[in-house]
């Protein structure tokens, strides 16, 4: 047993570069797990800086100074975000309040439909089973209501943290974008000398993460906009709210689409019942999801296409359990990182170094 472990260790980590890569990955993971809450503004700034870096670099390459390019793009980004928030937030807030207030009415309608199931399908469902299930659901709904109230009070406390974000994040973004080369050079100097594999994996992941963040934002905007327009045109109640949620659901691959289908179908069913309108809406929603999965994702995320859907779902569950929202958001890049690490630790995938030439006599 111990000999097998020793052979595996010698095979994978006999190269000092491989050992340094393992130590580097473990160190980053420990820092994020232990101090992730304190570093959250920094992580947000890094993600947004990745989003804008491509545009800033293109403008600066055409002759403009890096400082001016950063200032202009950051100003436009903040202005666009501010206008978008002001235009959508009132409608989304009002629809959210209306939806929460209507939950008891919706639940009553669902209950009235469920209690008819034993009469319609006596061989499949019994009245005692329905009563037991309904009792459990009612208890969970009471607990969920208490959680919503506690979250509402907690959100008031977090206003101070939000103000800190609004000040610190743009400031850090500006310096990250303006002094990108200097910061990357300083980080490289902190790494150990034996960093060939670290540099190989880092270069590969740097490109993938930048493309992933930009692609994910584009996907959210496209899917959310199309969903909002479709729901509003079909006169679905809470259309803007549900459309925005459908757009945000793409943050969680596969699982998000499955979860958001429940409120969309539920609201449509309560509004129209088993009617043609309900069927048309679900057909449009299915087309949106199909176009997202079969057209947008392959175009925007080439690295996601090379990963099996099962691996992506496992990555979402695993990294989401460790790092919460950011683990879910970066599930695909982290899964590709694991793939890159496996390749880096496999001898046939490592870049070959030429042996030193012997001095001629």
From TrEMBL:
<keyword id="KW-1133">Transmembrane helix</keyword>
<dbReference type="InterPro" id="IPR002549">
    <property type="entry name" value="AI-2E-like"/>
</dbReference>
<feature type="transmembrane region" description="Helical">
    <location>
        <begin position="72"/>
        <end position="92"/>
    </location>
</feature>
<feature type="transmembrane region" description="Helical">
    <location>
        <begin position="240"/>
        <end position="266"/>
    </location>
</feature>
<feature type="transmembrane region" description="Helical">
    <location>
        <begin position="148"/>
        <end position="177"/>
    </location>
</feature>
<feature type="transmembrane region" description="Helical">
    <location>
        <begin position="278"/>
        <end position="297"/>
    </location>
</feature>
<protein>
    <submittedName>
        <fullName>AI-2E family transporter</fullName>
    </submittedName>
</protein>
<keyword id="KW-0472">Membrane</keyword>
<dbReference type="Pfam" id="PF01594">
    <property type="entry name" value="AI-2E_transport"/>
</dbReference>
<feature type="transmembrane region" description="Helical">
    <location>
        <begin position="309"/>
        <end position="342"/>
    </location>
</feature>
<comment type="similarity">
    <text>Belongs to the autoinducer-2 exporter (AI-2E) (TC 2.A.86) family.</text>
</comment>
<feature type="transmembrane region" description="Helical">
    <location>
        <begin position="20"/>
        <end position="51"/>
    </location>
</feature>
<dbReference type="GO" id="GO:0055085">
    <property type="term" value="P:transmembrane transport"/>
</dbReference>
<feature type="transmembrane region" description="Helical">
    <location>
        <begin position="217"/>
        <end position="234"/>
    </location>
</feature>
<keyword id="KW-0812">Transmembrane</keyword>
<keyword id="KW-0813">Transport</keyword>
<dbReference type="GO" id="GO:0005886">
    <property type="term" value="C:plasma membrane"/>
</dbReference>
<keyword id="KW-1003">Cell membrane</keyword>
